[in-house]
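Figure S7 source data.
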Amino acid sequence: MTKKPDWLQNPWKQNPWFESVAVAQQRARKRLPAPVYGALVAGSERGQTIDDNQRAFTEIQFAPHVAGHQAERAMATTVMGQDVSLPVLISPTGVQAVHPDGEVAVARAAASRGTVMGLSNFASKSVEEVCAVNDRTFFQMYWTGQRDVMVQRMERAHAAGAKGLIATLDWSFSMGRDWGSPEIPEKVDLKTMVRMAPQVATKPRWLWEFGRTGQIPDLRAPNLAPPDGGEAPTFFGAYYEWMTTTPPTWDDVDWMRETWAQISGGRPFMLKGVCRVDDAKRAVDAGVAAISVSNHGGNNLDGTPATIRVLHPIAEAVGDQVEVLMDGGIRRGSDVVKALALGARAVMIGRAYLWGLAANGEEGVGNVLDVLRSGIDSALLGLGLSSIDQLTPDVVEVPEGFMRPLGVPART
Ligand SMILES: Cc1cc2nc3c(=O)[nH]c(=O)nc-3n(C[C@H](O)[C@H](O)[C@H](O)COP(=O)(O)O)c2cc1C
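Tokens for the predicted flavin mononucleotide complex:
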């Protein structure tokens, strides 16, 4: 008997591990020591923005068709010149201590699902290791250190094979969280392990993952190591350099894009963290290839609206000049479809894949991407569309007053 094609298999069997990102999050919470889980949830101050990022998606509704659905649905696209098999990319995050394979596992899963890996300069794995397993890697940099140091870091990322640069400039060093910040040790040595033992002793699966590889969580940032072979800074060393760097001007954005173009032979540059129409226009003037409409997942300036609320005015203003991505609050395929309907070319995910990584390593990240893919497909089916290219604001019901057009001169 011939084997049934994959698409005719029992659909519930496709995801034996978890069927939604929420389930992955529940497993992550069970598996991770409280400070590690807390560092992933993060959010800043009152948590207003992190909450709104997810809640706002629930205010947008669909108008599905009852018949006339399409048998084939396409969701492949390109982002900054890279083919992606679904409109979902990995947003850069520093994932120290979540899993021993860290960003290498994330990059492998992204490669196996045909998408781009965004690698943070604060990551626990080197750009060389990550580019070796995913040749569609974009390297992300904060504005940190002297210009000559930034040049060295760009040169290193280019030599490793990074296909694009993401500059993340939205950070305001907010310190207070109403639910208390998790403790992150300076480094993990024997003394720290003994002190934190009660918090990790109840997490056998997490301990086993690290024990199996003979590693202890490495809280260093190898991509910020000096070029002479010196030691990589600790997370706090790296954070200190960042805090003490004079904040960037728009001229610095020009310089960064231009410098990356010179080093890389014109590879694309994305500005991440745009929330306002006027900033989006300035980013166009600075010659960026793409922007990500982002509020850093609610970790930056609390009180900023959900990114899905600010997306459409920005996409309307600059969508024909640069690629507009968005990130923040994406937890299901239908969220991706809503973002695309409001003008995003693709989205980037943060916590969704971190939950997958914590729950089940590389396979867990692949599982999250599969959950999103299947959710996008199912929303397209319900809407009677055959491609993400047909997504327009007409396919969603957006309540009055939902949008927040920031940085638009007030009409008199
Ligand atoms: C734990 C954590 C670490 C992050 N680290 C970085 C980083 O190093 N660089 C960066 O550009 N963004 C960073 N971000 C922001 C993400 O790239 C992304 O903008 C955000 O997570 C999207 O929101 P979501 O988590 O709701 O998907 C981080 C986010 C989290 C949750």
